[in-house]
Amino acid sequence: MKDKERMLPMETTQIKSRPICRREAVVQGDKYRFSLLTPRLFRLEYNEAGIFEDRPTQCVMNREFPVPAFEVYETEHSLKIVTEGVELLYNKQAFSPSGLSLTVKASKDAHNAVWHYGEPVEDLGGTARTLDGADGAVELDHGVVSRGRYGVLDDSHSLVIREDGWVETRKGETVDLYFFGYGHDYQGCLRDFYRLTGDTPMLPRFALGNWWSRYHRYTDQEYKELVQRFEKEQVPFSVSVIDMDWHLVDVDPKYGSGWTGYTWNKELFPDPPAFMDWLHQHNLRVTLNVHPADGVRAFEEAYRPMAEALGRDWRTGETIEFDIADPKFLKAYFECLHHPQEKDGVDFWWLDWQQGTRTKIPGLDPLWMLNHYHYLDSMRDGKRGMTFSRYAGVGSHRYPVGFSGDTIITWESLDFQPYFTANASNVGYGWWSHDIGGHMMGYKDDELSTRWVQLGVFSPIMRLHSSNSRFTGKEPWNYNLISETVMKKYLRLRHQLVPYLYTMNRLASQEGQPLVRPMYYLEPEQPEAYEVPNEYYFGTQLIACPITRPMDKKAGAASFEAWLPAGKWFDLFNGRVYDGGRKLILWRGIEDIPVLAKAGGILPMAALEPYSNRIDNPEAMVVKVFPGSDGAFDLYEDDGVSLNPAPTAAVTHMTWDCMKEGCFTIAPVEGNPATVPARRTYTLEFRGVADQPVEVLVNGQPAEAACSYQEDTHTLTVQAPAITPADRLEVRFGHPVAVRSNDLLGQTFQLLYKAEMEYNLKERIYGYLQSGMNAAELLGVLQTMELTDAVRGMLSEVLLAETR
Predict the structure, then answer these.
(1) pLDDT tens for residues 173-191?
(2) Which residues contact 331 (CB under 8 A, 6 or more apart)?
(3) Phi–psi pair at 153, nearest 5 degrees
């Protein structure tokens, strides 16, 4: 290849990499090389020709780690390398099960774990390329964390990335493995995985709101009417996804199908720039769906510029084949097909690649190439990069957001998605976007659709979507009144959660901590943490328990088998307090799912009153504060779009001294105060506390504040005065703040009221509580009554919530 053809396909910023391991951390022979990246992360290479790779690969970006302490014991025919975490034994021959082994050292109460080269690894799984056509569970690829204490990442077949940013195949057969011997330190393992493969980028703020997506042949007028209907119904969205009918699809059969297209259908959208400008005025970002597999054909408006850019005669009408392995094609692909559309208003692209895994470069998956270069190209103007595409293997976390594919609309599909989403953290993939509500086929079930929306709000990305059936639109008013009401409430809740989500966005990018994590990440030695696959941490303050199975008609509720870590936990919606350290069956009606806040938790949210679908840093906030422990939260804000947000970064420290002084403090803003509104109001909701007087101070001086109390959720609300970024706000209780016990009588009444059962049994049960019977005594009585298992279980949850 000529030098001028080896240039980058477009002028853009490459992903920064530090691919060369420090020489002091390398133990090398003629045909083998071991790189000690950390005491628990080893690179293992073998090549008969002694050729070793020091360039970044499709998977691995950085090998420049601090040199760990290690010892080497070597003879003519053996090698032993010992760190504080791992011991490697090697016979200096071609890698084999008998010649190469690594032992993970365990704590005194556990056994060492030994891996012999070539042995299958039983890890906790990672994620999968797609859920296309899934009607329930699909098989997952490998991850890097394991209850067996080690994981293995095989990078032997990745292409290498050259200095000019292009890719090429490796020379010769080679073994290139990474051994993760982290035991049960899953979070430490994941942090070093990110350090090795590249950080997860920060998403633009708008990506964390609701996305409206539907495969439907909209006209611009119909779409505008829909947006206005959402505004009237006060249902907020931040992203407008225009599916494939934005472009010409009814094409002359001589060109093939209409799946690939780049030319707006002017019958549907007479003035695309004006249409997208209108969407922007209504606070929506725009993404267009593209299927690039069929190349560029003669009917496209961009055909002539594309042909001329490639030095072809446009008058022949010959199809320009999609060839992502050709740098000249890729350059023209962006400059002729995408940049003009972006100038007209497209904010990012939905790459719906579905056709094949091969290119002219052996081993190059076109999906990976599309994701890589679309992400790089999206940053060319200094804005934060973003793609929306399918998963293309380990390392894909560098190119968020992920599109999981076209699932079947069934309970089985819904039931698999919480586990699928959380488990993807085991390979660092934190930003899955599902077709919330399911995509196609299946059946109409209003309860199913409602539960799916509830899951979507507590998912990484909340994107409603459906197929092109006229019956599957996800507009809330397409469902019964109860489901419509609940869906609207949850869609508003998603936008309220954006300040919290945006802070978690930064933690994912800067500290290697995905928004959604399996329960065993923080409690790896608890067997129960592995027994609740659909339960997960949602950021640092919450646990989500999405309900994915139908309700019991008699109980009017559906169940979720949960495990709560030790400590106090508070239901975000009904205020119920739970003692943790055990398993519980949680029951909820259609109105909510169990979402639990930890003791000492602080949850910053946007106030949507007065209603707005703007998603920028809010002028009014609601902060939910939970007793039972001290707590802290650092609210992070910036301009939401810049590739380098540091000049606009602002941090608001919130602290909760619950156990001694009983003082909640919002400190003055650190960083750039101009990022935060000049005056901001805070509504502080102290959950699970008794009604009591408080003192409100601004900069140490008493301030007027309106206080109220909600008895059913035991919530004390303090409406503080507006403050500037330089002000300090304090709410002082003046004493340790105790957790108020559940209202056993009131909560039992609510459950009995909606249960479909004999009235005389309702009266008897309620009468026992009124007479002073305690929870343990009533549990025994319930076993003697003719109740359904669901009704008995629902009542037992309330009686068992607190153990004292």
Answers:
(1) 999 999 999 999 999 999 9
(2) 9, 10, 309
(3) -110, 120
